[in-house]
Amino acid sequence: MRNSKILRLIYTLPLLVLIVFSSFFSGCSNERNSGGEKINIIEALSSSDTEGYSIADKVIDFSFPEDHGPHESFRNEWWYFTGNLYDDSGNRFGYQLTFFRIALSPLTITRASDWGTSQIYMAHFTLSDIQNEKFYCFERFNRDALGLAGFSEDPFKMNVGDWYMLGTGDGDFPWQLYASQNGVSLSLDVTPLKDIVFEGDNGLSYKSVDKTSASYYYSITRLATEGYMEIDGTRYEVSGNSWLDREWSTSTLNEEQGGWDWFSIQLNDNTEIVYFQLRYKDGSVYPYNEGLIVNDDSSTIKLGTGDIVLTVLDTWKSTTGVAYPLKWQAEVVPLGKTLIVEAAFNQQELDLSTRYWEGAVNIYDSQDVNTIIGTGYLEMTGYE
Questions:
Q1: Mean of pLDDT values over 2-25
Q2: What structural domains and CATH numbers belong to the chain?
């Protein structure tokens, strides 16, 4: 479901910001939110302007490492990393580093100016200091011109300003992730511990009952991760597990849809679960949802509507006035297990050009709510 949250909202931003200026960035933390006028994600996603772009409407044969790179005939695309990491003292940190590509036109624009481009790149970077319950988040925009942002094949690199993901010349792992702003930094190497898995119908992930909107979607649900994080001059050597989601698409959400809840769960027994629940505008559950269970050997069990029964146990109201459900019961029907998913701490709300909650979570067995049996990430939109 990761496509949805941010990419298409770019089309509602004043293009003066994106085209006249070479770059733009903003940030937020526990002490300081960006404030100002917010873009409604769902309204941005309701655009039906798909003329001239490629559409995710059939099953394809994926090819790697080529499909790790961009697909510029589609309107939008994202490389989405999240993870839970620990230092030698047991201090835990969550992070999100996401690169988005947004096409301004389905046509390749040829201009005499080196500033000319039909592609805009955006990135989000967050760090959750779980022991101290501090959250830092930043975003950047840049045009695909003059090295300000974009993709190269040799070396395999995606950048937005000096934030980047970097691999070998042919896109092989490990990849290096780097971002730094306002005294908050990360530099991490990620290496897959499991095979690539494909969401939906062999990588064609539908987002509606009538199957009129979809994305191409694959994941690497467990990557060994090591490197460092730095907060206000204090450096932490960290290691742990990350998660990569990759999607590209053109089609949009239905106008009747009002938001979604996305869960990525890494259990201590080397099982992963990914599941998204779409919602109507009145908050009720939309009747199409999907996900995967990824077993120890990378084999998968496909999840459909009703295979995970979600119940809200507790909510929290942020300083922005938005109430989010931060404690959930998740009955995983195919496994015969009931899990509790709870925020590692409440204030992990991104208050940038748009507003949504995404942060680190703890996983418990419903029969033992005192023992953490896994960690993960939770994303929620549409609650404002």
A1: 44
A2: 7-381 (2.40.370.10)
